[in-house]
Design brief:
This protein folds into two domains: 1-105, Rna Polymerase Sigma Factor, Chain: A, CATH 1.10.1740; 106-188, Orthogonal Bundle (Arc Repressor Mutant, subunit A), CATH 1.10.10. It contains eight helices and two strands. It has helices at residues 6-17, 27-43, 53-65, 75-101, 125-138, 140-151, 156-163, 167-187, and strands at 108-110, 122-124. The longest helix has 27 residues, at 75-101. The N and C termini lie far apart (44 Å).
């Protein structure tokens, strides 16, 4: 499937915000990118994970379709929201799996990008989600930067565009948030 240039998607998303097309009109244009993002997420999961990239994309898409009050700004904004929803789908899936297993193995994800030491330890997905939630209580901007960079795979420039910040500010927030997350995960 060939994807349209970012400008075409941005125009469609802006029209979507005005109530013209439906979200399902956007999906074919960004499906490949969403699928790559889902595959990226699932590579960080345990080997016997039951959720497949296609299922993750479809579940996140269902949640995207329910977002009727979002004023889409551009493709990066859309992908950032999609990344956030994929994170929620994975956490919800892991919680449901844990409820069934009643204390089974924790869901592990490598934290190579968040870990400033670079030794790529694995962390519990719940612990990472809890750390991000905790970070958001006192610094929502840093939590959003982590979410967009780590989970969304967005570049510094894309995060800057989505959050309406300078790239230098995003880099600074990324470094501080990464260090905080690393310390928080080590203490659990």
């Amino acid at each position: 499937m060939t994807e349209k240039p970012p400008g075409d998607v941005t125009q469609l998303l802006m029209a979507l915000g005005a109530g013209e097309p439906a979200v399902q009109d956007v999906l074919p244009l960004v499906y490949g990118e969403l699928r790559r993002l889902a595959a990226h997420y699932l590579r960080r999961e345990r080997k016997d994970h039951t959720l497949q990239p296609t299922a993750l994309v479809h579940e996140a898409y269902m949640r995207l379709a329910a977002q009727d009050r979002v004023q889409w700004r551009n493709r990066s904004h859309f992908m950032g929201v999609a990344a956030q929803l994929m994170r929620r789908v994975l956490v919800d899936h892991a919680r449901a799996d844990q409820a069934v297993k009643r204390g089974g193995l924790n869901t592990m994800v490598p934290i190579d990008e968040v870990n400033p030491g670079g030794d790529a330890p694995s962390v519990d997905l719940f612990a990472l989600d809890e750390a991000l939630t905790k970070l958001a209580t006192f610094d929502a901007r840093q939590a959003k930067v982590i979410e967009l960079r780590y989970f969304g795979g967005l570049t510094v420039e894309e995060v800057a565009e989505v959050m309406d910040l300078s790239p230098a500010t995003v880099k600074r927030e990324w470094q501080m948030a990464r260090a905080w997350i690393h310390r928080e995960l080590r203490s659990t």
